[in-house]
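To fix ideas at the outset, we first show an illustrative case, written as a sequence plus integers encoding its fold:
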Amino acid sequence: MRDILGYEGKRVVVTGASSGMGAATARTLVDLRAKVHALDIKPIEAKVEQALEVDLSQRDSIDAAARRLPGHVDALFNCAGLPGPPFSNLDTMLVNFAGLRHLTEALLPRIPRGGAIASITSVAGMGFRKNLENVKALCGTKDFDEARAWCEANPDKANGYLFSKQCIIWYTMQRAVDLVARGIRMNCLSPAPTDTPMLPAFHAQATRDFINKHFLAPIGRNATPEEMAEPLVLLNSDAARFISGVNLFVDWGYLASVEVGARPGLL
């Protein structure tokens, strides 16, 4: 049977590879015989080619990790993220957006034609069009330091998890258009609630009952990390070679239920 995913021997980078969706993504790619270079602020258990410690809230830490990554990268998986509290809004914005963008832009010169980038955002970002002026303002900053300064100057707008995920969606679509000429694809994935170490933080913020009532997938359960990792792996694979600029909802019909009026759209 033809290998339609085409990862064997390819050099890939995965952030957030210590736990949750990032760990599941790293394990899946190892199983597919990719050469996985994994990044996280915490220890990484997957049997990867290289495991690097990185703090995505710090530009110098990102730059140091980037210097140790291969000069040729076939695919980048941006899986790292913070849930908001107990982390500050600023740290959440830096890790989830500014740091993600800084690493992506650092690695783009190493990604050849046919390469791909996939980032994890969230169903929480689905209302980005309602906040487009602020999203465009932050995404229009030129680099990590300018993005940090914008967030510090606009704490009421750069207010953490939801806004960071909105910005990932816009950045993905905007950059996908830019990268057409280079033959590089860029997509993102919006998960429904998933059983990861991050989920209790959301329950603490909004209560488990509220999240289950309004955001649980219609099938009636949370997703597993693997149920998010595998579609993410698909997006950067040869099988998805004509897919770019897409925000893929992996939610077992949550978005559909909102759009047809079967449940309220709170975002």
